[in-house]
Amino acid sequence: MSANPASSPQHEKVSLITLREKKERGEPIVSLTAYDYPTALAADAAGVDLILVGDSLGMVVLGYETTLPVTMDEMLHHCRAVARGAKRAFLTGDMPFLSYQADVAEAVRNAGRFLAEAGMDSVKLEGGGEMVSTVRAIVSAGIPVMGHIGLTPQSVHQLGGYRAQGRSAAAARALLEDALALQQAGCFAIVLESVPARVATLISERLTVPTIGIGAGAGCNGQVLVSHDLLGLFDRFTPRFVKQYADLRGEILRAFERYHAEVRGREFPALEHTFTIADDEWQALLDGLEDAPLGG
Q: What's the Cα-to-Cα distance from 213 to each of 68, 195, 218, 239, rounded to whole Å?
């Protein structure tokens, strides 16, 4: 009897154990962002290990200038769509600004909503040592937490812009201390964003939990990119660390322009795009209108 494909390793649901074992084996963890059902389907089909429903959706989907205006309702809405599409990848929902910073109890309740209402497997929050008590409380409630240090977009105004972090010895040491504190608090993985490659490698080697890099070099245990950046869909700016694997914005624009031209030129819809009515039915309609005119 042949094996059931759904039960083979490549089709099994990715878990925290899977991610930890990948780090132990030295096997890179592949992560992408997704914000909707079709993208989640595609990422899952491609074999992506971890899908992050990032608050970056505020910029690349909703058109905000920063991630700061994103609300819990917006995050949960997009998380639900992703959860409908991705059945294999491990799913992480980004906790938006002020959903966890002000009050620990509120942070736990909001984190729980990502699992109970939106189908996520875990949550992600930004910050280092100052977030330890919050992380510990959320983890104690049975909710896996991914940390995020380095360039933390929710702190963009405090950081003075989207700048690389950890470029001095003191700043690099502070990042390492933050990473160790988050690990001790119970984070199952930590995102390192816009950190010098050597610093990120050092942190990755000192931690027992996986690191996921974005603009942090090849020494991290995994990599993540914003899907809209990778696909060339977002053109407001392109971070230095992004590699574009497609130019979908260009393709979409060309398709829209062609559609516009064909409608204006009465080339679309053509006969093959239309439905027909049998000649006898058409004649019956015309005869009926002659016998009993509308409004008569």
A: 22, 8, 8, 14
Specify the 3-state DSSP secondary structure of 148. strand
Six token digits for residue 106: 């509120």
- CB-count burial class (<10 Å; 0-12, 13-18, 19+) for 160: exposed
CA distance 207 to 210: 7
Catalytic residue among 24, 65, 74, 193: 193
**Residue of 44, 40, 69 whose CA lies nearest to 53:** 40
Q: What is the pLDDT of residue 9?
A: 52
Of 42, 47, 60, residue with least CA distance to 236: 60
The pLDDT tens digits for 26-36 are 999 999 999 99
* 193 is annotated as an active-site residue: yes
* Cα-based distances in Å from 296 to 133, 237, 283, 285, 290: 78, 63, 20, 16, 10
Question: Containing domain of residue 90, as a range?
Answer: 5-247
Asked whether the bond before 210 is cis by omega within 30 degrees of 0, the reply is no
pLDDT tens-digit series, residues 211-225: 999 999 999 999 999
127 and 205 both lie in a single domain: yes
Task: Measure Cα distances from 73 to 55, 91, 110, 278 in Å.
Answer: 12, 18, 10, 50
CA quadruple 183, 160, 154, 55: dihedral sign: negative
Residue 88's CATH number: 3.20.20.60
DSSP per-residue codes, 259-287: HHHHHHTT-SS-GGGS----HHHHHHHHH
